[in-house]
Write a structure and sequence with these properties.
The structure is a single chain. The protein is of the alpha/beta class and 442 residues long. The protein has two domains: 16-289, Type I PLP-dependent aspartate aminotransferase-like (Major domain) (Aspartate Aminotransferase, domain 2), CATH 3.40.640; 292-441, Aspartate Aminotransferase, domain 1 (Alpha-Beta Complex). It has helices spanning 16-22, 50-55, 95-107, 119-127, 144-156, 169-175, 198-208, 222-225, 260-273, 279-289, 292-312, 328-334, 349-358, 388-393, 410-423, 431-441; strands at residues 112-116, 135-139, 160-164, 180-186, 213-217, 235-239, 253-257, 316-318, 341-345, 363-364, 374-376, 401-404. Strands 1-7-6-5-4-2-3 form a seven-stranded mixed beta sheet, sandwiched between helices. Helix 3 (95-107) runs parallel beside helix 10. The longest helix has 21 residues, at 292-312. It binds pyridoxal-5'-phosphate (PLP) and ligand LKTG3HHF. Pathway: Amino-acid biosynthesis; L-methionine biosynthesis via de novo pathway; L-homocysteine from L-cystathionine: step 1/1. Keywords: Amino-acid biosynthesis, Lyase, Methionine biosynthesis, Pyridoxal phosphate. Residues 1-18 have a biased composition (Low complexity).
């Protein structure tokens, strides 16, 4: 399916009447349906640079509220016995959610965005497009929760899932066939920070099967750094729990597409199951997304310094901002930055555990994208839902430490990490030695 052939009316403004005409209404099988209440409208395209677009919004309520109100209402009164209101029931649509969806569609360079209750709910909605017998091709370094959901579908839903090394387009090509209904990519992968060539794989997948949908999990990058739809993906989704919201105070998932019929097929399970994002969480996410650029800029520059610091101590660091990353060029040909997640190995799982437990500013926590810095051991935490045998087959080092860098003062972060490394015996120096060397060089 071509990502560009959306057939969307350009510059549609999103008034109730124009929106209803703009959206073909179909069920999961593509059969026509009557118009849905208040779908999000196609955006009119970006006019300004991203930092401006993140905070700039048009359209509000009848009072021109600067911050879109939280429409904390399950139901909406209708104008007649046969309906007639723009909204009827919050499971089907809510003005706060619609405002956020329109804003995100603009930010994600998409014709339509849909917001749901978590990143996993977003993937669940996307996989409702699949039918028993369909094949899915995905990576062998996949977020643990995505692996778990796909495993459930292959065990119980008749879906055949191929996990291959998606950093090699040849490996993907080997398994692509006319039954491949979906290719599911993540880049950089989590937690091994491997890079996947979205454009090359999307082209190959569409050639193998023109109906194959290429979905990209963009959680590690956010729309600020990467637009998979521009590279040929059909569907982009992300966990809004991470960079988009930025404060670990909500769970959310976002799905974005250019094909409006596909958008309606994705809306169907959201309405049918009731996983659309609640009004208060929609409001919180709308507030969070406005600071995405300032947060990410700071997180990214901190992450770069920290990656260089660890590398200078001889650790094998995985971060696409380092020239030593084997796919540095590929990443930078697709993305506008390296993000703020990096991982490194110590060679000893006990040493890694001591580092994690010695750090003070770095909170021991799963997740990433938050303003606070986090440290974790993926094999025991975020990726524990992948069994030990599979982790070993996929060469996931048990001693791997993942750092998710926040916006704190970078010197404090480095000093805390340095102390933890010394206390854990991971570097062959004493703190006195490090301080003496620092005093000498300053
Ligand atoms: C890459 C990636 N995709 C998806 C998810 C799922 O998001 P959520 O936790 O919001 O369900 C996560 C983390 O949880 C993730 O790291
Ligand atoms: N217990 C959770 C673990 C969530 S991991 C969150 C995040 N994606 C990360 O990579 O840290 C679960 O079982 O899903």
């Amino acid at each position: 399916m071509s990502a560009s052939g959306s057939g969307a009316p350009s510059g549609a403004s999103g008034s109730a009447s124009s929106t209803k005409k703009a959206f073909p209404r179909v069920d999961l099988q593509g059969n026509d349906l009557p118009p849905s209440p208040a779908p999000s409208s196609p955006h009119g395209g970006r006019r300004y640079n991203i930092a401006t677009e993140l905070v700039f919004t048009e359209g509000s309520d009848q009072y021109n509220a600067s911050s879109v109100p939280i429409y904390q209402s399950a139901t909406f009164k209708q104008t007649s016995g046969s309906g007639g209101g723009e909204y009827d029931y919050t499971r089907s649509g809510n003005p706060t959610r619609t405002h956020l969806e329109r804003h995100l569609a603009k930010i994600m360079s998409a014709q339509r965005a849909l917001v749901v209750s978590s990143g996993m709910a977003a993937l669940d909605v996307i996989t409702r497009l699949l039918r028993p017998g369909d094949e899915v091709v995905t990576g062998d370094d996949l977020y643990g929760g995505s692996h778990r959901l796909l495993k459930f579908l292959s065990t119980n839903g008749g879906i055949i899932v191929h996990h291959v090394d998606t950093t090699s387009p040849e490996k993907v090509l080997e398994v692509l066939n006319s039954k491949t209904a979906m290719v599911l990519l993540e880049t950089p992968t989590n937690p091994l920070i491997k890079i996947v060539d979205i454009g090359q794989i999307a082209t190959a997948a569409h050639e193998a099967n023109p109906n194959c949908l290429v979905s990209v999990d963009n959680t590690m990058m956010s729309p600020l750094l990467l637009n998979p739809l521009d590279l040929g993906a059909d569907i982009v989704y992300e966990s809004g729990t991470k960079y988009l919201s930025g404060h670990h105070d909500l769970m959310a998932g976002v799905i974005a597409v250019n094909d409006l019929t596909l958008g309606e097929r994705l809306y169907f399970p959201i309405n049918a199951s009731g996983c659309g994002l609640a009004p208060f969480d929609s409001w919180l996410l709308m507030r969070g997304v406005k600071t995405l650029k300032v947060r990410m800029d700071q997180q990214q520059s901190n992450a770069q310094r920290i990656a260089e610091f660890l590398e200078s101590h001889g650790f094998k660091v995985r971060y696409p901002g380092l020239r030593s990353h084997p796919q540095y060029e590929l990443h930078n040909s697709m993305a506008r930055g390296a993000g703020a997640v990096l991982s490194f190995e110590t060679g000893d799982v006990n040493v890694s555990e001591r580092i994690v437990e010695s750090a003070k500013i770095w909170a021991i926590s799963v997740s990433f994208g938050c303003v606070n810095s986090l440290i974790s051991m993926p094999c025991r935490m975020s990726h524990a839902s992948i069994d030990a045998k599979t982790r070993a087959e996929r060469a996931m080092p048990e001693d791997l430490i993942r750092l998710c860098v926040g916006i704190e003062d970078v010197d404090d972060l480095i000093e805390d990490l340095q102390r933890a490394l010394v206390e854990a015996g991971a570097v062959n120096v004493t703190l006195d030695g490090i301080h003496a060397a620092q005093a000498e060089s300053s």
